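Q: Predict the assembly, please.
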Amino acid sequence: MGLGARGRRIEGKTEGKRGSVNIVSARQSASGASIRISRLEKRFGAVSAVDGVDIDIAAGEFIALLGPSGSGKTTILMSVAGFEFPTSGTIHVDSEDLTYVPSNRRNLGMVFQNYTLFPHMSILDNVAFPLKMRGLRTAERHARAEAALATVRLAGYGHRRPNELSGGQQQRVALARAIVYQPRVLLMDEPLSALDKNLREDMQLEIKRLHAELGITVIFVTHDQSEALTMADRIAVLRDGKIQQIGPARQLYERPANLFTAGFIGEMNFVDVRVESVGDDVAVALPWGETWRLPATAAVEPAVAGEAAVLAVRPERLQLGVSPAGQVIAVTLSDVVYAGAALLLIGHLPDGTEMRARIPGASQLSSLVPGDVASFTIPTEAMLLYRGKRR
Amino acid sequence: MKPPTDRGSLALGAYVYAVLAFIIVPLVIVIPMSFSQNDYLAFPPSGFTLKWYSEYFDSRQWRAATWLSVQVALLTALFASVIGTAATYAMIRGHSRLVTAFQIALIGPIIVPHIALAVGLYLFFQTIGLSGTIPGFVLAHTVLTLPFVVFTMAAALGKVDANLEAAAMSCGATRFQAFRLVTLPLVLPSLASSALFAFIISFDEPVVSFFLSGVRQKTLPRRMFEDIEQNLTPVIPAIATLLIMLSILILLGAHVLRSRSVTR
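A: Predicted assembly structure:
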């Protein structure tokens, strides 16, 4: 007994939302908190690391902050964790303003890139550490730490030392330590980047499973787009401290909101064009003299007659051969690469622009060799039009 | 087949053995002299006696000087290790622009000649009445030993991932708890080893003690100087032998502590 009362005390603000808490509860679904990041700005001297970021995260949502290094994704996470205080803007968790609350009073779980287990403590003491900080008694701490270890499938490892575990196991212990006090939010700072590829994929599934099981809100920072696409409900793409696009994986991939996202997420072919007229459809002049008429929906950003624009198409949307369902291009092949599930064809358009195509069912295409001129059809609905020039 | 020997490697070998000899010979001379039956310092020693050891242990003056040195060295070890660790922590984790200035000030006593420091401290302590007092000795020795603590602790603290403390704080620990429960246990062997160094440096520090010692309050090294000037009996090599043993013990202890911190 006593567990229920203590459990509620730990929960603090969420008291009463859930029934009594017991040892098994580390496995029960908990309610995540909603997070609202408003007009967040962080300047280091003259440099803006984060420049007016707004993100609304629903309770229980898994959101990934994706961007190249220096894009501000880690600074945003550290501001939510309380290790950085923003220059301006606010961070609310549920309705509570946490913007300037010290990190140790935020009750958020955090997993770092390099495991950060305490090397002088046993695995059990590591996992029980947050409970010790919350004044729980030894027996209770250990029972709950054991339960959390079982949640990450490391039951029975409690007596070992961190340096006796593999990198993946250490990161699972770090995960157990972050969830043992049932926080409403789990923050993860590139948690898998130190692991090798196979282990990383296992851990991605493990974290997704935990997220589903615990119902906790997750903010996950990564520079690995496939990781973000695989794991997150929604992805925020960042660049130079600004959000470029925020949305579910499919939306980011199928209809990137701007040229940066189009080039950053997945592979994309770009062709510089000029907009000739805008009406019921958009007429664009291609570098080799043709004019194509695209449906108005192809213009992701409003097209303006007379301006430069970029036509974008995914390599896997190109179809080999001539078909009336789209525009036909002639590509002089320079490389034919067998890539397992698909054949990668690399070549250039009449004006020299590089074009890549990924054609599944590679076997019947083995007759193609570098130097051949191949005709491809770009389906009308696969074309996206952006303003500006490709880089 | 043996590799060819050339003059260069012979010269290097001779040089290395010469260095070792210069380090070892004084010890080899001092230790036998402490057992000599002569009433004055002489080499080679003649006979064997332990009377110089008993003279040291029986003398009230020698015991008083030793006790003073022990007190001063213990307090110095305490203050230097605590202050040095705190200062090093600030230097390593801090982001102040003053870090470099701070660092120079801390390791200054290694650069400034001890005699200059001693004269300065003497004149200053004389006016404020700290000369010849335990607080005076402890203050002076703490300044002298801080650089050694700073060097040892900078190496140790530099190896502790700053994110460990961040992790502890995200678990609910205050900044101080994070230091006490995570960082401190990890650097404790180095801390103990730097305290031992501070102890031994203070315990046989001659220059500053020479200036600061009063008529009654004399540290052991100062008392030894006086004895050399006035009597020059083999009690000096006897004490020197005891000091050598103490230093060896302490260095061994420090070594054990350090190797333990490495294996962690």
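Chain B has one domain: 61-263. Chain B touches chain A at residues 161, 163-164, 166-175, 177, 181-182, 185-186, 264 (CB under 8 Å).
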